[in-house]
Specification:
- This protein is α+β, with helices and mostly antiparallel strands.
- It contains 4 helices and 7 strands, in the order αββββαββααβ.
- It has a 7-stranded antiparallel sheet, with helices on both faces.
- It is globular and about 45 Å long.
- It starts with a helix and ends in an 8-residue tail after the last strand.
């Protein structure tokens, strides 16, 4: 589903932007760390300080009300011949307990910050990718 060039581009990014919407269609976009495995993207709900309980985050409430999401990976620089992005659309589910552990292991392998963080008991967002779109330069010859 995800073309090889797009997958390499995604893997070269450290941050993506997750778009969710509530039941009324009001959008929210937040930067996220991610791991990609086959046609599923995973996003940890981590132990960084939050305004309230991690399980009460707006993105999780939005997914419960409306599981259609988008995840965007981009590269920007002043030389506009080098711009590029990949957008994945799909349906999100929230993994909890033992179901979250394999995804948390992937995320810990990708981000040293997660490896040092206790993620036990925290949920993971799993996005089952339905479509992938890209635009611009997806080459590997620039730093993420």
């Amino acid at each position: 589903m995800i073309a090889d060039a797009a997958r390499r581009f995604i893997e070269g990014r450290r941050v993506a932007h997750l778009a969710t919407a509530d039941a009324s269609g009001v959008p929210q976009v937040v930067p996220v760390c991610f791991a990609l495995a086959a046609d599923t993207a995973y996003i940890a709900i981590d132990a960084k300080p939050k305004r309230g309980p991690a399980t009460a985050l707006k993105r999780l409430r939005n997914i419960a009300a409306n599981p259609a999401v988008a995840l965007v990976f981009d590269h920007y620089e002043e030389d506009w011949t080098r711009l590029g992005w990949v957008m994945l659309r799909g349906r999100a589910a929230v993994l909890e307990g033992a179901a979250a552990l394999p995804a948390q292991a992937l995320l810990k392998a990708r981000y040293p910050q997660y490896a040092a963080m206790d993620l036990a008991g925290l949920p993971v967002i799993a996005i089952h990718i339905e479509t992938a779109r890209s635009w611009g330069r997806l080459a590997e010859d620039f730093a993420p």
